[in-house]
Amino acid sequence: MAFFYEGNKVKIVTVLRSGGEYTAEHVRWFDKQLHSRYEHICLTDMKVEGLRNLALKTDWPGWFAKLELFDPDLLKDDIFYIDLDTVVVGNFDHMLKDHSLAALRDFYFPEYAASGIMRIPHAAKPAIWQALRLMSKDELINYKGDGELLRNIVGFDFLQEQYPDEIISYKAHIAGSRMAGYSPRFSHGNGALPAAAKIVCFHGRPRPWSLSLPWIAPLASPIPRL
Q1: Is 65 within 8 Å of 15 (Cβ atoms)?
Q2: pTM for the whole structure
Q3: Half-sphere CA count of 99, side-chain side, radius 13 A
Q4: The predicted structure's pLDDT at residue 119
């Protein structure tokens, strides 16, 4: 589903809602992976030093806070949203040049879209935001998550179809049988990072900073240059 917005500049946006397991430290850990290559903005109800913050306006809890990305008054630009528990392992400039509304194809249930990464063209925001604002908070949180809610509002293109082998899952594509996160049903990795990978998604436990792998930096350490 393609949209075009004259003269836009894509922003990398993350979301941090207070009260959960994530803190400003996790935002800065993710930001270091970008090596100042992209403009990164954090949508938050906290203060994250070192980068531009935009205030959350709703009281939508937990992951539902990321639905504010669709507020057309938040930013007048296209957004490339990425979950904080994501590892950047290569250059993804080319993913920012497309103007289609796109999200992850769920790594376990590929018939569904997942919201761990979303490319949101500005022109797509008003209709989605209007649909969200017509819902009460109780209606909204009755969904299992923001991904399920969004699937009931809009259709997404799938990022993995646009960029084959470049956006992968640690658990599905890397974890071997003796590694944390391995699932006999869903895991098909051998422990190695595939050469074509640009972005590795974790979508749950384990979190990347809990692992000792050469391509993942600890929270308090500098991020290795790619």
Answers
A1: yes
A2: 0.92
A3: 12
A4: 98
Residue given tokens 């959960």 in the structure block: 20
Residue 13: strand, helix, or coil: strand
Quick one: average pLDDT of 150-164? Answer: 95
For the record, the structure tokens of 204 come out as: 């749950």
- Distance (Å, whole) CA 10 – CA 78: 5
The kind and range of the H/E element at 129 are: helix 125-133
Q: Is 90 helix (H, G, I), strand (E, B) or coil?
A: coil
Question: SS3 for 30?
Answer: helix
Question: Hey, is 135 helix, strand or coil?
Answer: coil
The size of the chain, in residues, is 226
| C-alpha distance from residue 114 to each of 32, 147, 148, 210 (Å) | 25, 5, 8, 23
Strands 157-158 and 199-201, by their bridges, are unpaired
- Percentage of the chain beyond pLDDT 90 is 85
* C-alpha to C-alpha distance for 15 and 23, rounded to whole angstroms: 10
Give the model's pLDDT for residue 221: 54
